[in-house]
Amino acid sequence: MDFSFYFPVKLLFGRPIVEALTEALETALGNSSRHPESASVLLISDPGLAGTGLVERVTERLHHDRWCVSLFTEVRSNPTVEDVELALEVARANEVSALVALGGGSVIDVGKAIGLLMANGGTYADYQWHGRPIIRPILPLVAVPTTAGTGSEVTKVTVIGDPETHFKKGVLSPYMFPRVAVVDPELTVTLPPRLTAATGADALVHALEALLGKRSNPITDGLATAALTRAWRFLPRATRDGDDLEARREMALASTLAGTAFDQSGLGIIHSLAGPLAAQYDLHHGLCTALLLPHGLAYNLPALDNKRATLLLALGMPPSASDSEVVGEVKAWVSKLGLPTSLGEAGVSGPDLRALAEEASRMVLLPNNPRPATASDCQRILEKAH
Ligand SMILES: [Fe+2]
After folding, report:
1. Confidence (pLDDT) at 165
2. What is the distance in angstroms between the CA of the first residue and the CA of the last residue of the chain?
3. Residues 41-78 pLDDT 10s
4. Ligand 1: distance of its center to the CA of 169 in Å?
5. CATH of the domain at 138
6. Ligand 1 centre distance from Cα of residue 206 (Å)
7. pTM flag (> 0.85)
8. Are 118 and 91 in contact (CB under 8 A)?
């Protein structure tokens, strides 16, 4: 057995964001004795969070701690390179030396992209899919997730959409990690049930695919199993009662653990199918993973080795459970979340499935899936999910 594990992110878990942010910025800048006034910080967020007053509270605290702060709060929910270019203009105009990304995966991904371009020059398109090499670490970034799902605060990847097709192309490098992740579970309390369910399902699928992926290793297995157990148990609770702080805390932890795991071990067939599906129909990424979860798992179950027992233990099922019983339980879990349970219900048209399957079969994530899959296999999974 040989593997590597590289994780350079300082994680501050559980402290209120307004209390933790100055320490996080000092750590990110690498010199805690430096006077905050000498560093210009860009706070990146989205219009929804700006409307809740959270951005204002955080900005006030940063001003109080004497940081020089500029704002970009226009990140859209499926950001494209246009969002990145707009935010980059603000970052350049203010000569910022650090970034705070306060929001869901979209906001954190835009933060990584700005940090990349500030440090390395060029445009986002230059770097996507292993184009131009990244030669310098991104600008110091503090990532503050407000959803429990993407795990972007602890990963070295950003995915930004093409403005015409909305298809998301990733940029990945060990230089792309945020310097600090501040995970304050209370920030997720105001998330509505549907978004809680969709983002949380994404976290569970990250954990599942990290556990089963070909590049998994004993460290990612431990992280993925801990994430899977938590998301399976606590997502229905967090969805049912948003004020259930224990469930919110466990989901925030599940998301961060799953992000740390899949960043190193890769993903699989569910994410390979979810990418083209979300782009084509402008659907929420997490919703796509929830819709595909039972069917992607059903495809993989016959090919699992000793991971099958680990998986069933994490899901609280007996080792004797048959494949169809496992899939039945997973379907019941997804339907408890109150999300659509078929692609048809989510507005996906039957005749498009062939083209979606072709696209999924070309995804770079797919070779990491425990069971090889052709375009026809992908199409059969989509048909079952329809
Ligand atoms: Fe995902």
Report:
1. 67
2. 40
3. 999 999 999 999 999 999 999 999 999 999 999 999 88
4. 13
5. 3.40.50.1970
6. 6
7. yes
8. yes
